[in-house]
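Archive entry. Fields below.
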Amino acid sequence: MSIGLARLIGLAVVLAGMTSFFALACPPQDDRPPPKAADNLLLPKDENDIKTGITKCVECHKYTYPIDPMNNLYAKSFKSHEFVLLGEGRSWKQDDPHALAHRVLSSELGKQMSTILQDSKILVTDVSKAPQCLTCHAIDVTPAETSLARKNFETEDGVTCNVCHGIRKAWQNDHVDEARIDGKKWIPWRIATPQAKEEAGMRNLRDPVVKAQLCASCHVGSAAEGRVVTHDMYAAGHPPLPPFELATFMESQPKHWGYPTDPALKYFTPDAFKAYAGEAFAAKHPNWTWELYRFHANEVYLARQLAAGAVATLQAEMRMIAADARKVAAVDPKDRSEGVDFARFDCYACHHDLKVPSDRQARGYAGKPGRPPLKAWIGALPGVVIAHAETIPALAPAAKDFKTKWEAVQTAALARPFGDPVELAKAAVGLADWCECFLQASGAGGKPVYTKDEAEKLLKAIEQAAVSPKWTADPEAAMHLTWAYVTLRDHMGSPIAAKQLAALGETITTRVRIPPYSENGEPVPAGAQIGRRQDLFRKYESKTFTDAFKNVLVK
Amino acid sequence: MRIVACLIAGILASLAITARSEPVRAAPPSYGVEPQPDCIPKASSSCSAASCHGGGPAGRPGSEHTSWAPEVFSDGAHDPHSNAYRVLFKAESDRMAQAVGNGKIVAHKLDLCLKCHAPAGITDPEVRAEGVGCSACHGSSEKWRTVHYLPDWKAKSNRDKSASGFIPTKNLVDRISNCASCHVGSADREVNHDLIAAGHPRLAFEYTRFHYQGSYRKHWEERIPQPDFEVRAWAIGQVASLRAAVEVLRSRAVKAKSNAAPWPEFSEGSCYSCHQNVVRDPFPKPSAEKLRGLQGERSRSAGTIPWQPWYASLGGSVADFDAILFRIEPGHESRELMALRGELQKHLTALQTEMQKRYPNPATVADLAGGVIPNLDRWLIKWQDAEDENSFPEMSPETSKALGHLLSHGAVTAEGKLKDYDWDFAAQRYLGLAALYHANRGLAPVAPWRPPLERLRLALAFPTSDHYASPRDYRPERTVAPFLELRTITTPRSGR
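PREDICTED_STRUCTURE:
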């Protein structure tokens, strides 16, 4: 056994141990393990168990739509087009900015960042090679490695299929065919449990919690995985990370997958499932949609994604804050030369042009004036999701205590400029753990929650928050709620009329990314919208926004 | 042998000092820079008798009080100091007081505000109502009120007068240091970031800009003629302001050690390094403009907040100002002055380095700031003496030109890049050049400065629309060409 392999396995064991050690005592849940625990299964068993390229994936997932069921090999032989879209790799390559993730590091902006960060002795190499950048911009082929310096990356294709779906070769080979259950019995891949798929190394992205936590680990950050955009990086030119809203980001990626509730994916209907899995299997698994594919046919699909995304995002931010605050708190105040990084606070509390009279002064401050608060948007949507959950008996017990936890974080953050690190670390961990319990509870019991009625209530609650002075005072919070609202309304079949949406779009961006997604066969970079988004921030006025938003409400 | 060598070196050094420039007096406590003696302030009613300071036409001797008082003349001009207390009754003042003072507080009763808005009247309502009245600038008059018109008093030195609580404002070091104790701050007077965020305007003191602001009805006549008055006032203002800023910082850091003050204190940083929009449309296309490498030398790490570019970017150049004002040729500076220059630079650099860390350590900052203050005082005392002894050389056109060259040359590198892209850095240099231009009434040698100065002004101006109070569209690189032009214009034909 090579030293590298031994280290890999050793670290995997340590990580697995740590995960179980930190497993939370949450309210009763279903038999599903906590989502992050699945990460252990995703770790490669050895160096030969890693596969990162896209060539193999694109061999099958390359087709243009509509798929011709009579002539497409996979459609014709396996009805694959009723289970997946078959054009995933093509969409990714053509429309998805993840495909540019590494290339952008060599752009003019990337070069600028390299120069500044190397001059500032923050990086020792350019951004296209620096592990601090590659943890998000490339494929980490040493996911068990905790030291950034010892990590290895594949950089050729940016954030490819394997980054999200899993880099282990086992599932990439198996998923076209069968899965091994309990180490012996083979069954068709499609009807294998998420646990069995994870054992082969495939991340269960059908689970909104797993997906949300994975996306948030880059789009918000994860100190544990070395995925942190620091204030230094922003100052050197890194584009401001937009507030992460899972449903909006899925729609704007644009998604290269279908929702199981889409009529085109016929496999996810009782009859088709029965036909594929067999009568006996179907009879033994009456809750198959949830058990195997983590959806409920009578739920509004994106409502659950949106809710999980909001809470997982809050959780990721709290973990980031806690990691930073803990680092600061570990140093005796007498010797302290670092504070909690500026990037953990509301960027626009500082980064705005000054005006007299000032909107901010007129609206007042949560704590003492002049102390940067945490990002307001991070609590806006979770607040709505959790308040809604409090009205649902199945979720109400898990939803309690949110306000106490949230207020503890705010108090610690505003106790002094950049927070009281000891209290902040404690409060942020408390809230992050609380989020984990809530996320686990949201799937517990395998019962539907976000039915049409409940999704409508959630939509209404988002609507009310979006025009509430509590949030309209902050352009990012207003934008985050707007994104959630526009996406959910679209998904629920009552899209906002183009004229009103355009008028709202004059006050704030209504999507994180807008078509065309592709130019000359290549994805349009995610940065294309940033200039306009920031310009609107600069001009933002809560009254104008509120007036425009009120015009798009369902009458 | 070693003793002999030391003696010879000492003799040579003293000869060098005598021959090359005036010695710097060993530092006795300066006056005016430190807080005045504990005297009881008196209301201005004792000053305003018609036969004393309350008669005659505005701005003429004998009318000091009436010129200061807002209600006597209604020519549109006024002395803003007389309104200082009244503004505390405005609704926005109460809003600020409530925001920083935990609610239920009115500004006109809050010590934090009164310390500058009615500095002599914290405890005496009669004096308080005057706002910044006679005592605030001339000193509490308990010990000199009844004698200050007598020949004996007039024969006293400023140092002796100062011992009675009198502030000799004719000495520009005294005057400006006293102004700075509010307009910049002092150990117990400050406008911190909490207060600014609550609505208080930023303090950005530059003496000549304040002195010559339109509609400021002055109650005195300057005895020092132009350009000498303004050139000296500008240079002294830079140093006295930096001194006050460091004193404020030291006091903040000392309090922060025991959590008695916010820390890090953001008003120590450059306002517009944070208060700017971070991305412009289109993004990231105009990278050539955005590249800070083109905008200026990278003198700080990415993401660092520059410390006090308003006060420190020029105030620390006191040794250079001194050499120009006293016409000391390059290389002829005495060893004593060279040592002073080196000491100040060493202490200032150490303070700046600490303050530009992500989290400046308050205990370290307090120590380092404490090291800077006496090193600035040594220069201020030298200038204070020169003011008292009337020993400043005449400010010749060459003096203005040399200062202009120092300011413009110091703005850009040999490669034609800005040395610092911060707005404050360029704005202070512009104000300095403008003061020199104004001091010379726009005539030779400053007449050709006007076009580049005008371009600098436009580059630095805040937008005139939408009530902007920050340089929204500031592009540092636009100041490069005017600075280079000014550098060329002011370059001496030979030598300095």
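CURATOR_NOTE: The first helix of chain A runs from residue 3 to 21.
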